[in-house]
Design brief:
By secondary structure, this protein is α+β, with helices and mostly antiparallel strands. It has a single domain, classed as 2-Layer Sandwich (Alpha-Beta Plaits), CATH 3.30.70. 43% of the residues lie in helices and 26% in strands. The protein has a five-stranded mixed β-sheet with strand order 4-1-3-2-5, with helices on both faces. A hairpin with a 2-residue loop joins β2 and β3. α3 packs across α4. The longest helix has 18 residues. It is globular, with a radius of gyration of 15 Å. The termini are far apart. 19% of the residues are buried. It binds flavin mononucleotide (FMN). Flavin mononucleotide binds next to α1, β3 and α2.
Amino acid sequence: MFCLIYRSVATSSFGQQDIRLMLEKARVKNQKLGITGCLLFYEGEFIQYLEGNQIKVLELYDEIKKDKRHTDIEMISYAQREGREFEKWEMAYEDFFGDNDQITYLRLLISSYFEDVEETSSTHPASLPFWRTVHKLLNAKTKV
Ligand SMILES: Cc1cc2nc3c(=O)[nH]c(=O)nc-3n(C[C@H](O)[C@H](O)[C@H](O)COP(=O)(O)O)c2cc1C
């Protein structure tokens, strides 16, 4: 299994509703390609974690990079790993548009996840850059 993490900046015209429509198509395609992962959208920025067959993931990443709906695409990391982080998700999605309680909850969840990371072997090292970036993103932009 191969996984790849990148971040990018959404163009201002790519709104919440457009993202949801894009995801509907993306999930169908990801299922066909055997790709799973997670997309986060927070304060105009995307971070996406893709996992699956190496060639398929790299081909999809090439297509995503050409997509005019986002810019400043920056690779965070890629690696080979065993198993999947998001086994049941053709593309999990969170945009943090919920109320602050939700963000607080997510932050707590991720913090506790980080505390567990050192002790458990359940997290594959390859997905750590993803969780680390999510963690940073959430902590850097406190919304109260
Ligand atoms: C932030 C972002 C994430 C995307 N993620 C996926 C994805 O996981 N899977 C996918 O098929 N397309 C994704 N897309 C859309 C692709 O860039 C592209 O439009 C799509 O793969 C084209 O598919 P088609 O040529 O088969 O219609 C994403 C686009 C953006 C802007």
